[in-house]
Amino acid sequence: MNPKHIVITGSTRGIGLGMARAFLSMGHFVSVSGRHRESVNTVACRLQQEFGSEKVAGFVVDVTMPRSLDQLWLKASLWQPVDIWINNAGIAQSDELFHHIHPEEINGVIQTNLMGVMNGTRVAYLHMKQQGHGAIYNMEGFGSGGRMMPGMTLYGTTKRALRYFTRSFAKENEVNSVLVGTLSPGMVVTDLLLDSVKKNPEAHQQSIRIFNILADRAETVAPFLAGEILKNQKNDARIAWLTSWKIVFRFFLSFFHKRTLILDEDLNS
User: Fold this and answer.
1) Per the confidence metrics, is the pTM higher than 0.90?
2) Which one is catalytic: 125, 137, 155, 164?
3) Does 155 participate in catalysis according to the annotation?
4) Buried b (16+ CB within 10 A) or exposed e, 9-33
């Protein structure tokens, strides 16, 4: 096997960290990154102890700043040539209807979830075009497929735009040896999801029921995404964990078997 080097933004927790672990367990090199130096250093040290110091590097990046993304590529590529770049960094919105959200928060969510992905894609593509190979994947989320829910308008808008941007850019792709695609993890139990439920568990009872039918842990979804990324040879690919058939099957099974992904201890911790 020829080990690859994967750079993942927003990989100090959640699905980003899950994918980092999955790639490392398969013998590849991983650059983890995040906005805060303390969390980056903590996660990088933990992974180095688990998988070997030669396999993991950690870098601080602010995806809202194009220069910071340039620096991430430069530092990561000086450590190991970059083969795969995953734009995973994203933030949630406050659990409010859109007209209650302050303009500063609107700008912050758009800058991270959309502009961060666009600039990250641009930086990675220009370097990969120059080196003659590579793959870029952007992380979808709630709203990517057009689903709507009160309190998710801002976040969902950024993810809907992200899918359009990625697919349109993939069609503009001039280099056959550089792939551009999206990742759809479905519903994943992360700190962001649990924090949202903890704020108002009574109002989220219906959501909790749906989560317990459809959601999965990051350690379940991440190895699938990592494996499909490594196998993919197609531009404009959409790698999805929670397919339409899987959704139908899980709702059918829910009549006979109760899944409890979100436990009482998750909400009380």
Assistant:
1) yes
2) 155
3) yes
4) bbbbebbbbbbbbbbbeeebbbbbb
